[in-house]
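hi! just following up on the protien thing from before. the input was this:
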Amino acid sequence: MAEPPLKENKLAKGTFAVVGIMSTLVIYGILQEKIMRVPYGPSKEYFSYSLFLVFCNRITTSAVSAGVLLASKKALDPVAPLYKYGVVSVSNILTTTCQYEALKYVSFPVQTLAKCAKMIPVMIWGAIIMQKKYQGYDYLVAFLVTLGCSLFILYQAAGDISPFNRGRESTVWGVSLMIGYLGFDGFTSTFQDKLFKGYDMEIHNQIFYTTACSCLLSFIGLVLQGNLLMAIDFVSRHHDCFFDIALLTTVATASQFFISYTIRTFGALTFATIMTTRQLVSILLSCLWFAHPLSWEQCIGAVIVFGSLYARSFLKTKQKPSSLETKQKPSSLEMPETKAPGPS
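and the predicted 3d structure came back as:
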């Protein structure tokens, strides 16, 4: 008798997570490509201060999460040791910086398809950090995704030019940044998963402390690089860039809450699977909006990647819930916080 409401509740949560991630991150993807690859003003200046975008995103998210905690009368005290929030924030800064910098050397469709390989570092970090064991078909899908991504990256269309390179895109440097992005991103989501399972942690509590640390670290980085005043001068001269960054930070903030909610409710590997459809839509929109040509080898690579990921999702729905999933107690996700331990 209790099963149908539970299933409906899980479906509603899944729908909420998918719609939230799809809508915010598709807009986010289009905006980040526009900011990093489209020139501004009559003199055709390019915005190149990727760490400034990280800073704007994190300071907005930190302020919103603090406001939510205060409005809901929940304590701002950290639930986990502060260094654990710091580990997530450092990894997150490196993830986002690699992502923005890679756009200078590889096109958005190349970067987005490479993100489909996110499940590979998630599986590796999951085995190391969480001692998780995966099914044989997970490893098969990981191999096929790697094959498809390799085809997409190695056989780029001749017309896809980077504005920062004045010739064929710098594949080696761009791919190196994408490998860094995937490694740090896999660690971030897996370590977040570990924090949620190890502590009775409210979503906004983790977001506030990780983004506050990220905000401080990115600000220090901007000052040390001497780019803070230069970035401010750029956006003050190009108001359309200021508007793009403001909209980017808004959707980035919203996406942070959807991502943390999804990881806490469904886990890191499920989150990586949910991203698949969003990435396909993002590639199609980017090709249409920014006129990126695709070679036939890239089309084959895309079919292999998305076909493998959708087949994996289909196989998982055919199986019975694993013991790992059944161990998750719905009550622990809905339970309000009754204590707020101080920093250790």
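Residues 320-344 have pLDDT under 50 and may be disordered.
The radius of gyration is 20 Å.
cheers
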